[in-house]
């Protein structure tokens, strides 16, 4: 079989620790033998970020804007311990934060479902994708611990000096206050990213806030979504026979639990933070969650939802075998290759991505898996494989399919 040719390069962002080890195994075993892989390589490993004063992260994000599709390995977000461990010049910022700021996107997270790993919510037979607004609200707040009696006010001063002033509360003793904000521009980007992703993946879109209580703040989110839907997306949704549906957050929670899944749930920043952890846990395992950043300009960055699996890496460095699950990282590659295939009109590339995904699922369903999956699988006698052994088992399934 001749190798599949590509036209436009993928932006390849390499990363850290155990996922960096898996990255190379995946390329060597599952991609390079079948694809004439074209990538523009950026090494986001912490050492190279440090050498380049983090310029490499900025360059990789700009390359993503240029080419349109990126695939990213998990990376270390430095903290004090990492500054020491890697002798860093500075505590570099989170690469995901830097990339998100440049691409201005929304993050969509979806579980990979396999038979034998049963969600805690039995009726969830299809994946639920959480779209989390990644700007503002309580994550960019200003807070005051009120020391005692006094008046708290909300004041906006316009460029022309005009004030809008409202009383928050007349305190008769100690208390707390908090100021939060969002921008019309960011909410519009969020809405467009959600509607575009729904059209792209042909799934219904649900959106929920607490607009009955937050009559200006949350209501503005609701209004912006509705206006963008009516003016830009309604026809596309109707043509695909998919639905946009707004409801209160508490009603949404109840409906989500009763649903069979198979839709996108758009959430404000805090709701998305909480709900994505709930949904991920209920579907079984963090190592089976995919994540894609979609910018309003139609740029895509695919990655796994988990981190660099540090504890496994230290075992690996000691020469011990690890049983690290590479599924979410493989799906980051297949997501990116499939998108590249769609954009460049290379059906063989899309087909390959689908076959590789199905090989991953079949391998697990046939009882071959990594340790953390075996511990939650209903499979009778699972064969627990090490990191490379699992990738080789997937390769064997793939070869039988091709
Ligand atoms: P983590 O790497 O996701 O790992 C947490 C634990 O979850 C692991 O210790 C492991 O449990 C289990 N796990 C996660 N992925 C797994 C996989 N593929 N296969 C098997 N088990 C898996 O999170 P962390 O330990 O909190 O963070 C480690 C580093 O990753 C940090 O430096 C953090 O900054 C970075 N991080 C990066 C990203 C990103 O780039 N998107 C996201 C999150 C964290 P056991 O040890 O019990 O086996
Ligand atoms: Mg969280």
Distance between the termini: 9 Å
What's the CATH class label of the largest domain? Alpha Beta
Total strand segments? 18
Q: Report helical residue fraction.
A: 40-55%
Number of domains: 3
What form results from the Cα inertia axes?
globular
Q: At the third CATH level, what is the topology name of the largest domain? A: Isopropylmalate Dehydrogenase
> Which compounds are bound in this model?
NADP nicotinamide-adenine-dinucleotide phosphate, magnesium ion
Q: What does the main sheet amount to? A: 10 strands, mixed
- DSSP summary: helix tally: 14
| Low-pLDDT stretches | none
- By secondary-structure content and strand pairing, the structural class works out as alpha/beta
Determine the strand fraction and express it as a percent band.
Answer: 15-25%
In what order do the strands lie side by side in the largest sheet?
Answer: 4-2-5-16-15-6-7-14-12-13
| Mean pLDDT value | 95
- Assembly type: single chain
**Radius of gyration, Cα only, in angstroms?**
23 Å
CATH architectural arrangement of the largest domain: 3-Layer(aba) Sandwich
